[in-house]
Design a protein that fits this description.
Elements lengths: L14 E6 L2 E4 L5 H20 L14 H25 L2 H6 L1 H18 L1 H4 L24 H10 L24 H13 L8 H10 L1 H4 L25 H10 L14 H12 L7
Antiparallel strand pairs: 1-2
Helix pairs in contact: 2-11, 4-11, 6-11, 7-8, 7-10
Subunit structure: Component of the cbb3-type cytochrome c oxidase.
Main location: membrane
Pathway: Energy metabolism; oxidative phosphorylation
Length: 284
């Protein structure tokens, strides 16, 4: 049914025929300023589409792109940073750490490089993660925590099959090397005892002396030369309960870290070295 329209007596404007609680809607035209603004936005959009990339596969008459703008900005920033990066590339981590200006730049750049390349495994603050990702913020180091040792680990990685200089001596899986599960259970109890976390087990002590002390030390003090971690400090890569230790002994563990040399330039590796060293666990 068609709405009944009429002229409002007070204003002389036709109504739309809509009425709510005795209030009738007037059929006023849109304000001219609003219409002109609307038409201007349409015209502006048409011009924008012609000159700038606003449609798929169309670059626009000016050939401008956000990616192109970014490339120009990046080139400018790289040119500004080039002298400092050249100094970082030529210096040793020790020299960088000793020079306040270089150290400040290296810590800032290292923090960004760490977030991009390392935090996924070691955590945003270098706190490590379960499953074989060691903390970089404590004073427990598998291969050493000096600037040069950290740099070597970053450059070549661990057990990655990429670099001949990669860190890592494989630990045997003792279940396949001749020990039985009861013997491995005894050995696990002795390993836990090294950090005062388990009961005394003389049989396990004898097995440790025969099979483990050569790498981990008689008291579980570890050996950085071969990457054998300490076993007497309650810091565990794969868990410090008996089940986790038993699994490590029986089946071995073999964490992998990529070699960053070739992926990152020398300046970035030096910045990462200084940053990791400064996380809290670095050594002289």
């Amino acid at each position: 049914m068609a709405k009944q329209t009429e002229t409002d007596a007070a204003t002389g404007v036709a109504t739309t025929g809509h009425e709510w609680d005795g209030i009738r809607e007037l059929d006023n035209p849109m304000p001219s300023w609003w219409l002109y603004t609307f038409y201007a936005t349409i015209a502006f959009a048409l011009v924008w589409v012609m000159f700038y990339p606003a449609l798929p596969f169309v670059r626009g008459l000016l050939g401008n792109t956000a990616r192109g703008d970014l490339a120009a900005v990046m080139a400018t920033e790289q040119a500004k940073a080039a002298p400092m990066l050249a100094r970082l590339r030529a210096a040793t981590p020790e020299a960088i750490a000793a020079e306040p200006e270089l150290r400040t730049f290296a810590l800032a750049g290292g923090r960004i490089a760490f977030a991009n390349s390392c935090a996924g495994c070691h955590g945003a603050g270098g706190q490590g993660a379960p499953g074989g990702f060691p903390s970089l913020a404590d004073d427990d180091w598998i291969y050493g925590g000096s600037l040069e040792e950290i740099r070597t680990t970053i450059r070549h990685g661990v057990r990655n099959g990429e670099a001949a200089e990669a860190r890592g001596t494989a630990m045997p899986a003792f279940l396949q090397a001749g020990l039985t599960m009861p013997q491995i259970g005894d050995l696990a109890e002795h390993v836990l005892l090294l950090s005062d976390a388990g009961p005394a087990n003389p049989a396990g002590a004898a097995l440790f002396a025969d099979n483990c002390a050569a790498c981990h030390g008689e008291r579980g003090e570890g050996n950085r030369q071969v990457g054998a971690p300490r076993l007497n400090d309650r810091i565990w890569l794969y868990g410090g309960d008996k089940a986790s230790v038993t699994r490590s002994i029986a089946y071995s563990r073999a964490g992998v870290m990529p070699a960053w040399e070739g992926r990152l330039d020398a300046a970035t590796i030096n910045m990462l070295t200084v940053y990791v060293h400064a996380l809290g666990g670095g050594e002289q």
